[in-house]
Amino acid sequence: MSSLFRRHTLAAAACTTLVLAPAAPAFAVETAEGTQTISILSFNDFHGALSADYSGTQFADTVEDYRTAFEAEHGADSTLLTSAGDLIGGSASVSNVQQDEPTIRIMNALGLETLAAGNHEFDRGLDDLRDRVLPLADFPVLSANFVDPQTREPVLAASEIVEVEGVRVAVIGASPNELYATTTGAGLEGNLVLDMVEAVNAEAEAIAAAGTADVIVASYHDGAAGSGALEDETAAKALFDRMVNETSPLVDVIFNGHTHQLYQFETDNDGVARPVLQAGASGSHLAAVELTLDADGTVLATTSKLLERSTQDPAEAAAESAVTAEVYALEQEAVAVFEDMQSQVIADLDGSITTDYQKRLDAGGTWKAGGTRSAETTLGNWVANSIKHSVSAAQPEVDVAVVNPGGLRSELFVDRFNSNGVFTEKPEDLVGRLTMGEIMDVAPFGNTLTYFDIPGSSIKQALEQNWRDGERVFTLGWSEELTWTYDDSRPQGDKVTGVWLNGEPLEMDRMYTVAAQSFLADDTWVSLGDPTKAPDGYTAFAEGRENFVDLGVLDTTAVVSYARAQDAAEGAVSPDYAKKGVPVTGAPATVEAGQEIVLTLGDLVIDSDGAPAATSVAVSFVTADGETVELGTVEVPAGEESVTLSGITAPQDAGTGELVMTVSYEDGTTTVVRHALEVTAAAGEEPAEPTHPAQPTHPVHPTHPGQPADPADPAHPGQGHGPVKGDDHPGQGLGPVKGEENADEAHHTVPEKVQTGDDAAWPVAALAALGAGVLLTARRRLTTAR
Fold it and tell me: Alpha carbon 388 to chain centroid distance?
């Protein structure tokens, strides 16, 4: 009988505390006669973490230090190295720009045996994974729950059985249940994603029935949302609760990934501790589970631990191990290729694209990434345009893109390089040129591109969240589709006065597709129930959100692609000095026809190098049906960044629409500012008179707004009076004016008797027309009064 069916009740060794250094560990299990101990290692979400600091080599040193010490005590080949997914995709720049090939070669050298298929393994599509990645890799990519929709057979291998010093270890891989929402859906080719826990259990049962393994490991590419107590984490996330409590008892070890958390739990599995671990991300930690088995292959005890990545000098580490030396050489080669790419010119640069860093310098401060972060800048808007450009290639329906100012880590100068605030002159041949290195410095974090649907109300909320406790602390960069207005004097949460996409007012209940970097789109704070942990405090991008997709494409790649496209289309990369957000103060909601319109436009000049001065504002009124009425032009005072409209009067015709104010600048740039406006009829204005022959000479005033004339006066049915000088309440009825009691009597005679038949036809028609005229006039005057 397979050892999988014989669970002994020996007490498990206690789970060790976090190991803070990769030195040779103290082992908790003494190997008794007739037993043996093996170790299964796991890491997750490595994301191609290679760098000029040689973090990949230091991770290899961590593995080698542990493996060397363990195998010295328990025998050669007594360790197994696995990964719980996202080895590649969403990678650091060194690996990403080389399509992650250096990472794959390094893992081959390090002896990786299995890789669970995370969502980012599919970033370039299933074809790329099968036809390029797998032939390069010396390890299988596993997913028990990614299956053909017809046959329900796994598209990739569901599990791999590896012999570890005579012990048969089966590793089952599982991809995220929401795989389609976390990678490029089209690249999955319509295959089906089954529930990961159910798929793991089914595969474990099949392995047990075949009797082909002594130990079973579940490598789930998903996990707890946080790293609190086990009971808190299982309560917070239903899927994690099911992993912990519903994974088959046939499974001896559970490794997690995807959520980038660091935790070390254990549960009882028929008297033997079953570890549940996740090892952070980017090679920051290594998880190790040591299992002691009897001669029949039955697990008697387990011990788990987490080891921090080595901090040893990479050259020294390479001198200690042939494996580490090979990894070091591969990483050096990858870094050299990357650094060569950094110096490559990718476009001409016709104007510096910057933050408002100069404000800090002028105030006596030092350069800081993102500048003050509270102002709109050419760099923020340009990077947002680049995100929109790249995401649109995958999702043409994307409406707008956004970027946080803290993600802008450098400046793009025409004639200088920037290295964390140290400015150096560019060589003559690079003046007016944009290099790969400069772009990589602007976006160095390895954020990936995402898109998702949120309601218009969430977009407005994101704009409101630029202010905290009434103070403007951030300003998001937006792609060119979005414009907005605000009034700083209004209360927190109500400062934004208008938002437009492509010139159309934002609809609060409509869903819009927004593109953003993965940092700004992160919603971990939701599962934690802590809005203070939202990225830069912006909760809006997770509220009401649907259809989230992480493309796995680096933001750096997007910026490079956009720069090349702009260079090809326009002859050079150039800044756009148009403002997206403009403060509008003192603006009326309504104005009488022909009356002066008074409001102030402020902050008209974008806070970036080279911004031109504003020169004039052309004002027009666009009616609800699209008719444009030109109202005039106002000059912006020289040297000023604000202007108050003067000499601009409202159109003569009443109606609703928008005031459209086009700001012109010295270099030909224009900024369009909009303001919703209703033009009402002028006080005392005579409405157009009906032409019906039965129309009264004077428009009729009802005694009360909306009420017909008093029918109790048979001598003057429907009789009314025109406006009287000094009447401040148009639309309200007037009492009889002396000398006018019978002024219209000749036109409105009262019949002496009731007429019937044909004789009654004309008087009845006349009376009907008269009544219609009365009601029409009353309605018009009521409209004027409102």
Answer: 11
